[in-house]
């Protein structure tokens, strides 16, 4: 009797719903959403993560919007394992071996549009960083490799030297107190000066003409301000899951920067397009630089514009973050500061570096072992780029080995990496004090049992800061030339001290890049 009553009740409910099409549609949508979400939960049930990550994206949204997503990812892998769950269909790993496998040159994994398309600067248009089709990405990369490597840009190093000299001159003439003087220096925001330098360098080597921020000691046309604001908006929309709005016809274009804008991001786009159009009227042999190399290797039209503009954005932000991080860790560790400056002074005394205002060559700077260790260690303990870099597991899934055990990754699962735990907190590789800034850890005795193998693993893992395999950063060569030269010349010419050591800077993670400001320092000229 009870069963008969329940059947009648169900029939009455179905009859009522059949007369309410809107309710049916809503009920159906909710039902299919719930079923889909449960399937996602079930297929990744073996991977642990914070409460709710198996059914909801809320935890991940909170991490992204906080501006500290890199720390959230780090804590997850440390608490829940080398592969952990951060959302219903998203995993994150701290394993260098697994990440190298995922990013191998012939890897079947692909970039995830869910993440990378948020980094587009124009709706629906890709560049080498945002392109998610592996074949198209590889084709683009092949056309650009020579330009980034410096092989077709004989003026690359001298162009960088020009702006390193401008930086030294700016600090000496406007901010530094004279040597052995009781006068007070003018407080200098090192964060902005590093950004001026890197933007001038990349616009010079990329477009043939620097934007002129260092000479003006200002953010000319608000390029940097607009770029930072754009990253923050992009980070917020990605975290909230509404970045798809930019791909809506008409609406997306209306809320995006325009080349008709008089200042900011749109103005920078217009400047880049004008530089390209002017260059297209001339022979690429007249001036050999990145842009000329791109043209010679077959980039043209919108592809040429997007790749050229992308190199300016990516090449400026990431290198500036690296320089700020290195200088902060050097200034906040007196022992390291003294030792590094002694090596710099020794190089000057030995004639390895030309007399000021000359700039040390890249080849000679790379031979300074402590400088190299400081650069590696600072970028290890505080990676300058902490993108999630979401990849898509190939259909059919993949069996991988992690911590000595075989693990199955279901197809179409998203998986990214935790820079914080792979580099900063990797005790298994770097020792129990992995979180400590100690450049000496790179001086491994290769004659000790297992020493050479351990150093090789350390170097390989550390190099992954610039990506790996198929997605290795094209701009690594240019960035490393800048970094070694700038650190050497700053410590050769000046003494620096943090103005507010209790709060040395403001910093926020936006789409995996660091927005850094208010890095106030006091500068004294060295005799």
Could you characterize the architecture of this molecule?
There is one protein chain. With 527 residues, the chain is an alpha+beta fold. It folds into two domains: 1-43; 44-525, Orthogonal Bundle (Cytochrome p450). The protein has 22 helices and twelve strands. It has helices at 2-18, 21-43, 58-65, 69-80, 96-102, 113-116, 134-149, 156-174, 190-207, 213-216, 223-240, 251-254, 264-280, 290-296, 301-331, 334-349, 362-366, 369-381, 419-424, 427-430, 451-463, 476-493, and strands at 83-87, 90-93, 110-111, 188-189, 391-392, 398-402, 405-409, 414-417, 494-498, 506-510, 513-517, 520-525. It has a five-stranded mixed beta sheet with strand order 1-2-8-5-3. Strand 1 and strand 2 form a beta hairpin. The chain is globular, with a radius of gyration of 26 Å. InterPro entries: Cyt_P450, Cyt_P450_E_grp-I, Cyt_P450_sf, Cytochrome_P450_monoxygenase. Keywords: Heme, Iron, Membrane, Metal-binding, Methyltransferase, Transferase, Transmembrane, Transmembrane helix, Virulence. This is Cytochrome P450 monooxygenase ABA1.
């Amino acid at each position: 009797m009870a069963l008969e009553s329940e059947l009648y009740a169900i029939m009455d409910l179905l009859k009522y719903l059949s007369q309410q099409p809107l309710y049916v549609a809503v009920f159906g949508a909710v039902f299919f959403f719930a079923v889909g979400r449960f399937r996602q939960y079930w297929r990744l049930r073996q991977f642990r993560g914070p409460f709710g990550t198996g059914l909801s994206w809320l935890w991940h949204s909170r991490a992204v919007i906080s501006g500290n997503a890199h720390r959230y990812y780090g804590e997850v892998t440390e608490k829940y394992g080398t592969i952990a769950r951060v959302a219903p269909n998203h995993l994150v790993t701290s394993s260098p071996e697994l990440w190298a496998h995922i990013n191998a040159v012939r890897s079947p994994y692909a970039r995830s549009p869910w993440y990378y398309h948020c980094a587009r600067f124009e709706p629906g248009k890709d560049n080498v960083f945002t392109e998610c089709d592996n074949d198209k990405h590889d084709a683009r990369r092949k056309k650009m490799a020579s330009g980034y490597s410096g092989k077709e840009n004989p003026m690359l190093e001298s162009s960088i030297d020009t702006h390193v000299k401008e930086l030294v001159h700016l600090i000496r003439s406007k901010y530094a107190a004279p040597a052995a003087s009781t006068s007070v220096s003018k407080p200098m925001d090192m964060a902005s000066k590093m950004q001026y330098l890197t933007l001038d360098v990349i616009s010079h080597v990329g477009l043939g003409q620097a934007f002129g921020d260092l000479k003006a000691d200002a953010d000319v046309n608000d390029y940097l301000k607009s770029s930072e604001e754009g990253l923050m908006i992009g980070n917020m929309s990605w975290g909230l899951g509404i970045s798809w709005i930019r791909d809506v016809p008409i609406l997306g274009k209306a809320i995006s920067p325009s080349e008709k804008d008089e200042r900011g991001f749109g103005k920078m786009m217009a400047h880049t397009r004008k530089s390209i159009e002017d260059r297209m009227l001339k022979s690429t042999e007249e001036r050999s630089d990145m842009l000329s190399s791109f043209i010679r290797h077959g980039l043209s039209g919108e592809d040429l514009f997007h790749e050229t503009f992308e190199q300016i954005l990516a090449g400026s932000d990431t290198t500036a973050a690296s320089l700020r991080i290195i200088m902060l860790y050097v200034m906040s560790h007196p022992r390291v500061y003294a030792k590094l400056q002694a090596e710099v002074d020794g190089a000057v005394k030995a004639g390895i570096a030309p007399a000021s205002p000359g700039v040390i060559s890249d080849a000679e700077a790379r031979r300074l072992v402590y400088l190299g260790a400081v650069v590696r260690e600072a970028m290890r303990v505080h990676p300058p780029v902490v993108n999630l870099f979401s990849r898509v597991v190939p259909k059919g899934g993949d069996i991988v080995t992690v911590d000595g055990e075989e693990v199955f990754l279901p197809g179409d699962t998203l998986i990214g990496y935790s820079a914080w735990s792979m580099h900063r907190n990797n005790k298994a590789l770097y020792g129990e004090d992995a979180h400590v800034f100690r450049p000496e850890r790179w001086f491994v005795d290769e004659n000790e049992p297992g020493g050479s193998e351990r150093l090789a693993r350390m170097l390989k893992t550390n190099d992954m800061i610039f990506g790996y395999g198929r997605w290795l950063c094209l701009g690594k060569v240019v960035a490393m030339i800048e970094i070694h030269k700038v650190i050497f010349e700053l410590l050769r010419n000046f003494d620096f001290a943090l103005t507010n050591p209790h709060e040395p800077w403001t910093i926020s993670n936006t789409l995996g890049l660091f927005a850094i400001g208010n890095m106030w320092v006091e500068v004294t000229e060295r005799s």
